[in-house]
Amino acid sequence: MSLTVDAPSALDTAPRLLAAPSPDLATHRATFGELPWQGRRRLVSEVEASGLLGRGGAGFPAWRKMAASAAGGEAVVIANAAEGEPASAKDATLLSVSPHLVLDGLQLAAEAVGAKEAHLYVRPGRGEHAARTALAERRGRDRVEVTVTRASGHFLDGEETAVISALEGRVALPRDKRIPAPVSGMRGRPTLLHNVETLAHVALIARGGSAWFRTAGTAEEPGTFLATVSGDVASPGVVEAGYGVPLADLFAAVGGPSADLQAVLIGGYHGAWVPLADADDAARIAVSRAGLAPYGATPGAGVVVALRSGACALAATSKVLTYLAGQSARQCGPCLNGLPALAENFAALAGGRAPRNCAQRVERLSELVERRGACHHPDGTARLARSALRAFEEDVRAHLSGRCAATGLMIVGRP
Ligand SMILES: Cc1cc2nc3c(=O)[nH]c(=O)nc-3n(C[C@H](O)[C@H](O)[C@H](O)COP(=O)(O)O)c2cc1C
Ligand code: SF4
Prior knowledge:
Blueprint: H1 25-32, H2 42-50, H3 62-71, E1 76-81, H4 90-97, H5 99-113, E2 117-122, H6 128-138, E3 146-150, H7 160-167, E4 191-195, H8 196-213, E5 224-231, E6 237-242, E7 245-246, H9 247-253, E8 261-266, E9 272-275, H10 281-284, E10 286-287, H11 289-292, E11 303-308, H12 313-327, H13 333-350, H14 358-369, H15 377-391, H16 393-400
Parallel strand pairs: 1-2, 1-4, 2-3, 5-11
Antiparallel strand pairs: 5-6, 7-10, 8-9, 8-11
Helix pairs in contact: 2-3, 2-8, 4-5, 4-6, 5-8, 12-13, 12-15, 13-14, 13-15, 14-15
């Protein structure tokens, strides 16, 4: 199922990434054609012209990483399917539906940067079987052998330096990175690490060209993306859409909301809450960096979680913050001390047992942890906490006086 920006309905336009009716090689070739080898570096200019942004969350221009990785010695390429984000299922879906598109992208990326070593880092049971079957089918066709390594399923698994550590045989924990991976990554070699969806787009660009790629999405964020739509919707699932798609179309593609909605969490557990003041808001909000900027949100890795009216948004946020605090690698101060304190204060707020200055404390703790970790885990956690304070201001006030505005109930247990 696919959407593009101009689509009058969620169901009108042809899918790209999810176009193949089955994951086998024959169907893949019938759907997309042969793997179009490009020669070293040519692909980098085409990817630059396409405007492809990484689909792993940060939205960094793909060509820049490719160009930097191609400039050094013998490079390593890595396809990242760790998908540690609990609300995301797009990488598993992509690998299950179109493993050959990802593997084509990995081969093409290896060719573009002159790599002789390629890795797929995948969460067990989440597209791993399809990927291994596809690799067996392609044996003898690929120019670079692909090593498959299993991720452990923790939230931090897929962070770039954690992936590299795991592939080097060490614990999959983030490291301080003073030198970017494309310059010095795995075993000190130039390392091009991309999310699997980014690589699948690379395989499409090599076939269709940059002008075709830009026929979906917006001028600043071209192409389609995979959204995992869950929460209070009729039929949670993964949807392919052009950037700029109205939020309402994403809901429509999964059968619509299952209740009146009060807000949506966009960008995942490191994302931000977008309040839906009335039913028309979802039709007005475009899912793109520009469309979400007024809410302090970005599409991130395409996670969209709908929250119904009447549910306690502070309790929902508190659950996620507690999870995130527990997932920290406990290597840096902000994670060791800051995130547990942040989660505890938020839990007190949600539980209606917080002192009057609790919201200010959460703000202060968020400020204290930001930009102070070796990786962006504290930043993403702080972003979520702050966005909840902003989006649910009225709820925060009500909780401070021992009442939940969403449920209309007095909170039992307030001292
Ligand atoms: C805490 C944390 C977790 C991350 N988890 C993932 C992940 O599961 N999968 C992923 O592709 N990128 C993840 N990333 C982003 C990666 O570090 C990296 O930026 C990305 O894989 C690069 O791919 P791209 O250029 O294709 O976007 C994570 C980042 C952070 C800070
Ligand atoms: S900031 Fe947190 S998650 Fe990131 S490396 Fe430090 S302790 Fe680990």
